[in-house]
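// run 5 | inverse folding | seed 20
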Protein backbone atom coordinates (compact mmCIF):
# COMPACT_ATOMS: atom_id res chain seq x y z
CA UNK A 1 0.00 0.00 0.00
CA UNK A 2 2.66 2.61 0.80
CA UNK A 3 4.07 2.49 -2.74
CA UNK A 4 0.61 3.10 -4.14
CA UNK A 5 0.15 6.18 -1.96
CA UNK A 6 3.52 7.46 -3.02
CA UNK A 7 2.70 6.94 -6.65
CA UNK A 8 -0.65 8.70 -6.22
CA UNK A 9 1.02 11.67 -4.59
CA UNK A 10 3.53 11.85 -7.40
CA UNK A 11 0.79 11.87 -10.03
CA UNK A 12 -1.31 14.54 -8.33
CA UNK A 13 1.62 16.86 -7.74
CA UNK A 14 3.20 16.55 -11.18
CA UNK A 15 2.13 19.38 -13.52
CA UNK A 16 0.29 18.14 -16.61
CA UNK A 17 1.92 19.04 -19.90
CA UNK A 18 -0.73 20.35 -22.32
CA UNK A 19 0.22 21.10 -25.89
CA UNK A 20 -1.32 24.36 -27.15
CA UNK A 21 -3.45 23.94 -30.26
CA UNK A 22 -4.22 27.14 -32.17
CA UNK A 23 -7.92 27.78 -32.67
CA UNK A 24 -9.49 27.39 -36.08
CA UNK A 25 -11.02 30.70 -37.16
CA UNK A 26 -13.37 29.69 -39.95
CA UNK A 27 -16.55 31.16 -38.49
CA UNK A 28 -17.86 34.21 -40.42
CA UNK A 29 -18.21 37.45 -38.48
CA UNK A 30 -18.48 41.21 -39.08
CA UNK A 31 -21.14 40.67 -41.74
CA UNK A 32 -22.27 43.78 -43.58
CA UNK A 33 -24.08 44.76 -46.76
CA UNK A 34 -23.40 47.43 -49.34
CA UNK A 35 -25.11 48.47 -52.54
CA UNK A 36 -23.03 47.96 -55.66
CA UNK A 37 -24.76 50.77 -57.53
CA UNK A 38 -26.16 48.27 -60.04
CA UNK A 39 -29.88 47.65 -60.01
CA UNK A 40 -30.93 44.28 -58.57
CA UNK A 41 -27.71 43.64 -56.69
CA UNK A 42 -26.27 43.63 -53.19
CA UNK A 43 -22.77 42.89 -51.89
CA UNK A 44 -22.15 40.84 -48.75
CA UNK A 45 -18.82 41.31 -46.96
CA UNK A 46 -17.53 39.43 -43.92
CA UNK A 47 -14.36 38.34 -42.14
CA UNK A 48 -12.75 35.07 -41.12
CA UNK A 49 -9.29 34.54 -39.63
CA UNK A 50 -8.50 31.37 -41.57
CA UNK A 51 -8.87 30.93 -45.30
CA UNK A 52 -12.25 29.54 -46.34
CA UNK A 53 -14.53 29.58 -49.34
CA UNK A 54 -16.79 32.60 -49.88
CA UNK A 55 -20.41 31.58 -50.30
CA UNK A 56 -23.79 33.20 -49.71
CA UNK A 57 -26.93 31.08 -49.65
CA UNK A 58 -30.11 33.10 -49.93
CA UNK A 59 -33.79 32.97 -50.82
CA UNK A 60 -36.88 35.10 -51.10
CA UNK A 61 -38.62 35.63 -47.79
CA UNK A 62 -41.24 32.90 -47.43
CA UNK A 63 -39.78 30.76 -50.19
CA UNK A 64 -37.77 27.56 -49.95
CA UNK A 65 -34.89 28.40 -47.66
CA UNK A 66 -31.48 29.02 -49.26
CA UNK A 67 -32.50 27.85 -52.73
CA UNK A 68 -30.01 30.24 -54.37
CA UNK A 69 -26.22 30.32 -54.05
CA UNK A 70 -23.64 32.93 -54.98
CA UNK A 71 -19.85 32.54 -54.84
CA UNK A 72 -17.21 35.20 -54.35
CA UNK A 73 -13.63 35.66 -53.21
CA UNK A 74 -11.70 36.05 -49.99
CA UNK A 75 -8.68 38.33 -49.94
CA UNK A 76 -5.92 38.31 -47.36
CA UNK A 77 -5.59 41.52 -45.36
CA UNK A 78 -2.50 41.87 -43.18
CA UNK A 79 -2.78 44.70 -40.67
CA UNK A 80 0.35 46.85 -40.46
CA UNK A 81 0.55 46.81 -36.66
CA UNK A 82 3.36 45.08 -34.78
CA UNK A 83 1.64 41.69 -34.75
CA UNK A 84 0.90 41.77 -38.49
CA UNK A 85 -2.45 40.13 -37.81
CA UNK A 86 -3.97 38.32 -40.75
CA UNK A 87 -7.62 38.19 -41.71
CA UNK A 88 -9.55 37.20 -44.77
CA UNK A 89 -12.13 39.62 -46.15
CA UNK A 90 -14.82 37.83 -48.14
CA UNK A 91 -16.96 39.52 -50.80
CA UNK A 92 -19.92 38.07 -52.66
CA UNK A 93 -22.23 39.99 -55.00
CA UNK A 94 -25.85 38.87 -55.26
CA UNK A 95 -27.45 39.67 -58.60
CA UNK A 96 -30.87 39.34 -60.17
CA UNK A 97 -32.64 40.50 -57.02
CA UNK A 98 -36.27 41.53 -57.37
CA UNK A 99 -36.64 45.22 -56.48
CA UNK A 100 -38.29 45.89 -53.09
CA UNK A 101 -38.43 42.15 -52.33
CA UNK A 102 -37.33 40.71 -48.99
CA UNK A 103 -34.60 38.08 -48.82
CA UNK A 104 -33.03 35.91 -46.13
CA UNK A 105 -29.39 34.87 -46.31
CA UNK A 106 -26.39 33.49 -44.50
CA UNK A 107 -22.76 33.54 -45.51
CA UNK A 108 -19.68 31.42 -45.02
CA UNK A 109 -18.74 27.92 -46.11
CA UNK A 110 -19.01 24.32 -45.00
CA UNK A 111 -16.33 25.23 -42.44
CA UNK A 112 -18.77 27.60 -40.73
CA UNK A 113 -21.92 29.64 -41.42
CA UNK A 114 -23.10 32.96 -40.07
CA UNK A 115 -26.42 33.59 -38.41
CA UNK A 116 -29.36 34.04 -40.76
CA UNK A 117 -30.00 37.68 -41.74
CA UNK A 118 -32.49 39.43 -43.97
CA UNK A 119 -32.59 42.47 -46.25
CA UNK A 120 -34.88 44.17 -48.73
CA UNK A 121 -33.54 44.65 -52.23
CA UNK A 122 -33.45 48.32 -53.14
CA UNK A 123 -36.21 49.64 -55.35
CA UNK A 124 -34.71 50.83 -58.63
CA UNK A 125 -37.62 53.13 -59.52
CA UNK A 126 -37.00 56.89 -59.69
CA UNK A 127 -40.28 57.29 -57.79
CA UNK A 128 -38.92 55.32 -54.82
CA UNK A 129 -38.81 57.40 -51.62
CA UNK A 130 -35.76 56.06 -49.74
CA UNK A 131 -35.22 56.53 -45.99
CA UNK A 132 -31.75 57.02 -44.54
CA UNK A 133 -30.03 57.21 -41.18
CA UNK A 134 -26.82 59.22 -41.42
CA UNK A 135 -24.02 60.09 -39.04
CA UNK A 136 -20.27 60.17 -38.59
CA UNK A 137 -17.82 59.67 -35.76
CA UNK A 138 -19.28 56.52 -34.21
CA UNK A 139 -16.82 54.72 -31.95
CA UNK A 140 -16.35 51.36 -30.29
CA UNK A 141 -16.25 53.18 -26.94
CA UNK A 142 -19.20 55.41 -26.02
CA UNK A 143 -21.30 54.62 -29.13
CA UNK A 144 -24.28 56.32 -27.53
CA UNK A 145 -26.59 56.31 -30.56
CA UNK A 146 -25.93 52.70 -31.50
CA UNK A 147 -28.67 51.04 -29.43
CA UNK A 148 -31.38 53.28 -30.87
CA UNK A 149 -30.06 52.72 -34.39
CA UNK A 150 -30.06 48.97 -33.82
CA UNK A 151 -33.68 49.00 -32.71
CA UNK A 152 -34.84 51.30 -35.49
CA UNK A 153 -33.09 49.15 -38.09
CA UNK A 154 -34.85 46.08 -36.71
CA UNK A 155 -38.15 47.99 -36.95
CA UNK A 156 -37.49 48.50 -40.66
CA UNK A 157 -37.24 52.28 -40.50
CA UNK A 158 -34.31 52.62 -42.92
CA UNK A 159 -33.42 51.56 -46.43
CA UNK A 160 -29.79 52.71 -46.22
CA UNK A 161 -27.29 53.82 -43.57
CA UNK A 162 -24.72 56.50 -44.43
CA UNK A 163 -21.63 56.52 -42.18
CA UNK A 164 -19.80 59.75 -42.99
CA UNK A 165 -16.29 58.88 -41.82
CA UNK A 166 -14.51 58.07 -38.53
CA UNK A 167 -15.11 54.50 -37.42
CA UNK A 168 -14.36 52.71 -34.16
CA UNK A 169 -11.76 55.20 -32.82
CA UNK A 170 -9.73 53.60 -34.23
CA UNK A 171 -9.90 50.54 -36.45
CA UNK A 172 -6.12 50.05 -36.48
CA UNK A 173 -5.70 50.17 -32.68
CA UNK A 174 -4.63 47.09 -30.71
CA UNK A 175 -3.37 45.55 -33.95
CA UNK A 176 -6.80 46.08 -35.58
CA UNK A 177 -8.74 44.31 -32.83
CA UNK A 178 -10.69 47.52 -32.22
CA UNK A 179 -11.68 47.42 -35.87
CA UNK A 180 -12.85 43.83 -35.46
CA UNK A 181 -14.92 44.70 -32.42
CA UNK A 182 -16.48 47.73 -34.09
CA UNK A 183 -17.44 45.71 -37.15
CA UNK A 184 -19.06 43.16 -34.84
CA UNK A 185 -21.00 45.96 -33.17
CA UNK A 186 -22.43 47.38 -36.37
CA UNK A 187 -23.30 43.92 -37.76
CA UNK A 188 -26.66 44.32 -35.99
CA UNK A 189 -27.34 47.20 -38.40
CA UNK A 190 -25.15 46.61 -41.42
CA UNK A 191 -26.14 42.98 -42.00
CA UNK A 192 -29.72 44.14 -42.66
CA UNK A 193 -29.41 47.36 -44.70
CA UNK A 194 -26.68 48.65 -47.03
CA UNK A 195 -24.01 50.41 -44.96
CA UNK A 196 -22.52 53.07 -47.23
CA UNK A 197 -19.34 54.83 -46.12
CA UNK A 198 -16.68 57.42 -46.79
CA UNK A 199 -13.25 57.75 -45.11
CA UNK A 200 -12.45 60.15 -42.26
CA UNK A 201 -9.25 61.30 -40.63
CA UNK A 202 -9.39 58.53 -38.02
CA UNK A 203 -8.92 55.97 -40.81
CA UNK A 204 -5.58 57.41 -41.94
CA UNK A 205 -3.25 54.88 -40.25
CA UNK A 206 -1.19 52.81 -42.69
CA UNK A 207 -2.62 54.72 -45.65
CA UNK A 208 -6.26 54.03 -44.73
CA UNK A 209 -5.63 50.29 -45.05
CA UNK A 210 -8.25 49.16 -42.53
CA UNK A 211 -10.90 51.25 -44.21
CA UNK A 212 -9.94 50.29 -47.76
CA UNK A 213 -9.90 46.59 -46.93
CA UNK A 214 -12.91 46.26 -44.66
CA UNK A 215 -15.54 48.09 -46.73
CA UNK A 216 -16.86 47.34 -50.21
CA UNK A 217 -18.22 50.40 -51.99
CA UNK A 218 -19.10 50.84 -55.69
CA UNK A 219 -16.48 51.73 -58.27
CA UNK A 220 -12.82 50.83 -58.44
CA UNK A 221 -11.34 53.30 -55.93
CA UNK A 222 -11.05 51.11 -52.82
CA UNK A 223 -14.13 52.88 -51.41
CA UNK A 224 -12.41 56.29 -51.36
CA UNK A 225 -14.90 57.98 -53.71
CA UNK A 226 -17.87 56.77 -55.73
CA UNK A 227 -21.44 57.65 -56.70
CA UNK A 228 -24.73 55.82 -57.01
CA UNK A 229 -28.40 56.45 -57.70
CA UNK A 230 -31.36 55.76 -55.46
CA UNK A 231 -34.89 56.96 -56.07
CA UNK A 232 -34.84 60.56 -57.34
CA UNK A 233 -31.35 61.17 -55.91
CA UNK A 234 -27.80 60.96 -57.22
CA UNK A 235 -25.52 60.42 -54.21
CA UNK A 236 -21.80 61.16 -54.27
CA UNK A 237 -19.36 59.94 -51.62
CA UNK A 238 -15.95 61.61 -51.52
CA UNK A 239 -12.75 61.65 -49.52
CA UNK A 240 -11.98 64.97 -47.84
CA UNK A 241 -8.77 63.35 -46.57
CA UNK A 242 -7.01 63.70 -49.92
CA UNK A 243 -6.64 67.39 -48.98
CA UNK A 244 -4.82 66.56 -45.73
CA UNK A 245 -2.74 63.42 -46.23
CA UNK A 246 -0.65 64.44 -49.21
CA UNK A 247 1.99 61.98 -48.00
CA UNK A 248 -0.17 59.18 -49.40
CA UNK A 249 -0.27 60.69 -52.85
CA UNK A 250 -0.97 64.25 -53.89
CA UNK A 251 -2.23 62.88 -57.18
CA UNK A 252 -5.29 61.46 -55.40
CA UNK A 253 -6.51 65.00 -54.75
CA UNK A 254 -6.46 65.90 -58.43
CA UNK A 255 -7.73 62.51 -59.54
CA UNK A 256 -10.76 62.80 -57.27
CA UNK A 257 -11.46 66.36 -58.41
CA UNK A 258 -11.47 65.35 -62.07
CA UNK A 259 -13.69 62.38 -61.27
CA UNK A 260 -16.11 64.63 -59.34
CA UNK A 261 -16.29 67.09 -62.21
CA UNK A 262 -17.03 64.35 -64.72
CA UNK A 263 -19.58 62.70 -62.43
CA UNK A 264 -21.40 66.00 -61.84
CA UNK A 265 -21.40 66.78 -65.55
CA UNK A 266 -23.09 63.46 -66.21
CA UNK A 267 -25.57 63.91 -63.36
CA UNK A 268 -26.53 67.28 -64.86
CA UNK A 269 -27.28 65.97 -68.32
CA UNK A 270 -30.90 67.02 -68.93
CA UNK A 271 -32.31 63.50 -69.00
CA UNK A 272 -30.40 62.50 -65.85
CA UNK A 273 -31.26 65.62 -63.84
CA UNK A 274 -34.92 65.26 -64.85
CA UNK A 275 -35.02 61.68 -63.54
CA UNK A 276 -32.89 62.36 -60.45
CA UNK A 277 -33.08 66.07 -59.66
CA UNK A 278 -31.52 65.72 -56.21
CA UNK A 279 -27.73 65.73 -56.01
CA UNK A 280 -26.45 64.87 -52.53
CA UNK A 281 -22.80 64.68 -51.46
CA UNK A 282 -21.23 63.12 -48.37
CA UNK A 283 -17.71 63.76 -47.12
CA UNK A 284 -16.13 63.78 -43.69
CA UNK A 285 -14.64 67.25 -43.03
CA UNK A 286 -17.10 70.12 -43.53
CA UNK A 287 -16.62 73.27 -45.55
CA UNK A 288 -18.27 75.36 -42.85
CA UNK A 289 -18.73 74.82 -39.11
CA UNK A 290 -18.94 76.88 -35.92
CA UNK A 291 -17.39 74.51 -33.38
CA UNK A 292 -14.82 75.95 -30.99
CA UNK A 293 -12.24 73.19 -31.32
CA UNK A 294 -9.43 74.95 -33.22
CA UNK A 295 -9.76 72.50 -36.08
CA UNK A 296 -10.12 73.09 -39.81
CA UNK A 297 -13.07 75.34 -40.71
CA UNK A 298 -12.77 76.91 -37.24
CA UNK A 299 -9.07 77.77 -37.00
CA UNK A 300 -8.54 78.27 -40.74
CA UNK A 301 -10.53 78.30 -43.94
CA UNK A 302 -11.41 74.82 -45.08
CA UNK A 303 -9.06 73.18 -47.60
CA UNK A 304 -12.08 71.22 -48.79
CA UNK A 305 -13.95 74.43 -49.55
CA UNK A 306 -11.17 76.62 -50.98
CA UNK A 307 -8.40 74.20 -51.93
CA UNK A 308 -4.68 74.46 -51.19
CA UNK A 309 -2.12 76.91 -52.54
CA UNK A 310 0.89 75.03 -51.18
CA UNK A 311 0.74 72.30 -53.81
CA UNK A 312 2.10 72.36 -57.34
CA UNK A 313 -0.13 73.02 -59.12
CA UNK A 314 -2.53 74.62 -56.65
CA UNK A 315 -5.26 72.22 -55.58
CA UNK A 316 -8.84 73.36 -56.31
CA UNK A 317 -11.46 73.33 -53.58
CA UNK A 318 -14.95 71.93 -53.96
CA UNK A 319 -17.30 74.79 -53.10
CA UNK A 320 -17.27 76.42 -56.54
CA UNK A 321 -17.55 73.03 -58.25
CA UNK A 322 -20.57 71.96 -56.19
CA UNK A 323 -22.23 75.35 -56.58
CA UNK A 324 -21.71 75.43 -60.34
CA UNK A 325 -23.26 71.99 -60.81
CA UNK A 326 -26.22 72.64 -58.54
CA UNK A 327 -25.53 70.29 -55.63
CA UNK A 328 -28.57 70.48 -53.35
CA UNK A 329 -27.41 68.97 -50.07
CA UNK A 330 -23.94 68.43 -48.61
CA UNK A 331 -23.61 66.00 -45.68
CA UNK A 332 -20.60 66.23 -43.36
CA UNK A 333 -19.39 64.98 -39.97
CA UNK A 334 -15.99 65.35 -38.17
CA UNK A 335 -17.28 67.98 -35.73
CA UNK A 336 -18.89 66.13 -32.83
CA UNK A 337 -22.05 68.20 -32.97
CA UNK A 338 -25.09 68.73 -35.15
CA UNK A 339 -25.31 71.89 -37.20
CA UNK A 340 -27.75 72.86 -39.94
CA UNK A 341 -26.83 75.77 -42.19
CA UNK A 342 -28.88 78.13 -44.25
CA UNK A 343 -28.19 77.81 -47.97
CA UNK A 344 -24.69 79.26 -48.27
CA UNK A 345 -22.09 80.09 -50.89
CA UNK A 346 -18.79 81.90 -50.27
CA UNK A 347 -19.86 82.69 -46.71
CA UNK A 348 -23.03 84.42 -47.92
CA UNK A 349 -26.52 83.26 -46.98
CA UNK A 350 -28.54 82.48 -50.11
CA UNK A 351 -31.99 81.65 -48.75
CA UNK A 352 -34.86 81.03 -51.09
CA UNK A 353 -36.94 83.67 -49.31
CA UNK A 354 -37.35 85.24 -45.88
CA UNK A 355 -40.36 83.11 -44.98
CA UNK A 356 -39.25 79.89 -46.69
CA UNK A 357 -35.45 79.80 -46.70
CA UNK A 358 -35.25 76.22 -47.96
CA UNK A 359 -37.81 76.69 -50.73
CA UNK A 360 -35.89 77.02 -54.00
CA UNK A 361 -32.61 77.85 -52.21
CA UNK A 362 -29.97 79.65 -54.23
CA UNK A 363 -27.02 77.62 -52.90
CA UNK A 364 -26.33 74.21 -51.35
CA UNK A 365 -27.57 73.35 -47.87
CA UNK A 366 -24.99 71.89 -45.46
CA UNK A 367 -25.69 69.42 -42.64
CA UNK A 368 -22.99 68.46 -40.10
CA UNK A 369 -23.87 65.30 -38.17
CA UNK A 370 -20.89 63.98 -36.21
CA UNK A 371 -22.38 63.36 -32.76
CA UNK A 372 -23.30 59.67 -32.92
CA UNK A 373 -20.95 58.98 -30.00
CA UNK A 374 -17.26 58.20 -29.52
CA UNK A 375 -14.60 58.36 -26.82
CA UNK A 376 -13.84 62.00 -27.65
CA UNK A 377 -17.39 62.92 -26.63
CA UNK A 378 -19.11 66.00 -28.08
CA UNK A 379 -17.60 69.38 -28.99
CA UNK A 380 -18.38 72.93 -27.90
CA UNK A 381 -19.69 75.67 -30.15
CA UNK A 382 -18.28 79.10 -30.78
CA UNK A 383 -20.65 81.46 -28.92
CA UNK A 384 -20.76 83.82 -31.90
CA UNK A 385 -21.60 81.85 -35.04
CA UNK A 386 -21.75 83.45 -38.46
CA UNK A 387 -25.00 84.28 -40.19
CA UNK A 388 -25.08 81.03 -42.16
CA UNK A 389 -25.58 78.90 -39.01
CA UNK A 390 -29.28 78.07 -38.69
CA UNK A 391 -29.46 75.50 -35.85
CA UNK A 392 -26.92 73.90 -33.51
CA UNK A 393 -27.02 71.11 -30.95
CA UNK A 394 -24.34 69.49 -28.79
CA UNK A 395 -26.58 66.52 -27.97
CA UNK A 396 -25.57 63.03 -28.98
CA UNK A 397 -27.61 61.92 -31.95
CA UNK A 398 -27.91 61.27 -35.66
CA UNK A 399 -29.90 62.42 -38.66
CA UNK A 400 -32.85 60.90 -40.48
CA UNK A 401 -33.44 61.77 -44.10
CA UNK A 402 -36.11 60.86 -46.60
CA UNK A 403 -35.99 61.77 -50.27
CA UNK A 404 -39.74 62.20 -50.48
CA UNK A 405 -40.07 62.89 -54.20
CA UNK A 406 -38.53 65.05 -56.92
CA UNK A 407 -39.41 68.29 -55.12
CA UNK A 408 -39.18 67.60 -51.38
CA UNK A 409 -36.50 66.22 -49.12
CA UNK A 410 -37.17 65.79 -45.40
CA UNK A 411 -34.56 65.94 -42.63
CA UNK A 412 -34.81 65.55 -38.88
CA UNK A 413 -32.18 65.34 -36.19
CA UNK A 414 -32.62 62.82 -33.37
CA UNK A 415 -31.34 63.83 -29.94
CA UNK A 416 -30.26 60.69 -28.14
CA UNK A 417 -29.91 62.76 -24.96
CA UNK A 418 -33.43 64.20 -24.87
CA UNK A 419 -35.36 61.71 -27.01
CA UNK A 420 -36.39 64.55 -29.29
CA UNK A 421 -36.46 65.19 -33.02
CA UNK A 422 -35.36 68.56 -34.40
CA UNK A 423 -37.21 68.70 -37.70
CA UNK A 424 -36.41 70.66 -40.83
CA UNK A 425 -37.97 70.67 -44.27
CA UNK A 426 -35.79 71.31 -47.29
CA UNK A 427 -37.68 71.56 -50.61
CA UNK A 428 -35.56 71.09 -53.70
CA UNK A 429 -34.12 73.91 -55.77
CA UNK A 430 -36.74 74.51 -58.46
CA UNK A 431 -35.69 74.53 -62.10
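// decoded
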Amino acid sequence: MPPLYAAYAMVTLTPMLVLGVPPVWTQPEQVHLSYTGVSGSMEVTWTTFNKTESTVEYSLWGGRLFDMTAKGNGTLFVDSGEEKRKMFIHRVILTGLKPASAYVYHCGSDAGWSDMFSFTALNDSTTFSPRFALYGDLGNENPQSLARLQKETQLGMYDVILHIGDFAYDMHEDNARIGDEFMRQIQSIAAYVPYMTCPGNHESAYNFSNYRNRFSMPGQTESLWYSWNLGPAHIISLSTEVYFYLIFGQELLFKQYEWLKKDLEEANMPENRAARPWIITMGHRPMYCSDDDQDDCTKFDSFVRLGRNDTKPSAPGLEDLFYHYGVDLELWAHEHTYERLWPVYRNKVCNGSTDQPYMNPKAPVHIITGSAGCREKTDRFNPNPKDWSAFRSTDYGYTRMQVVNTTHLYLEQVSDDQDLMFRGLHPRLAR
